[in-house]
Write a structure and sequence with these properties.
The chain is mostly beta strands. It is built from one helix and seven strands.
Amino acid sequence: MKNKNIKTKEVKVIDRPKLVKIAINSNRIFRIDFTKKDNTFRIMICRGGVKKGVTGKGLKYNPKDYNNAIVFDMQKDGFRTIPIERVHSLTYKKTKYTFK
């Protein structure tokens, strides 16, 4: 039996504003680890740029004003708000991003 090489994920340190540019504005699936508003830790498999299910009504607030990002939660099948300042790490395209 041959020993298969397992590729380890590369780890990069980036600024938090790049988080939105890297994954949330894309249309790819990614993992994000963050602390919710009630101080519980959450791991979410989500996707940015989802248009399906959007009614056109819009939000009652601008998420950028509160440093939030809107993503589609793949496990709970619905849109969720992520507080950018509470994100611990993001895994996208086999690369794990941590923040300064």
